[in-house]
Specification:
Length: about 90
């Protein structure tokens, strides 16, 4: 999945994490990116692969996604979306 970050401030991002949450609020699938630098006003594409899991047993429904930039106060942020995806045998 590719995310386009459009920062309003400059600073280091220590990590970028994305979680896909089941209807139970459990983060069933997650992805992360290595540290990078953000510059105010310069968009940046960050590609992640959901290659880590919390071993949610199928079937399960994904109900939300959250993306988190962990870094200095200037760039730290979190964005959430409602999504719907079913994992079934």
């Amino acid at each position: 999945m590719v995310f386009r970050l459009a920062p309003s401030a400059t600073g280091p991002a220590l990590t970028f994490l994305v979680f896909l949450h089941a209807t139970s609020k459990r983060a069933c699938l997650l992805a992360s990116a290595a540290p990078f630098s953000l510059r105010a006003g310069e968009s940046m594409a960050v590609e992640v692969v959901f290659d880590d899991s919390d071993e949610c047993a199928t079937p399960f429904e994904i109900a939300s996604m959250a993306a988190v930039v962990e870094g200095t106060v200037e760039v730290a942020s979190r964005q959430e979306w409602s999504v719907h995806y079913s994992f079934a045998p």
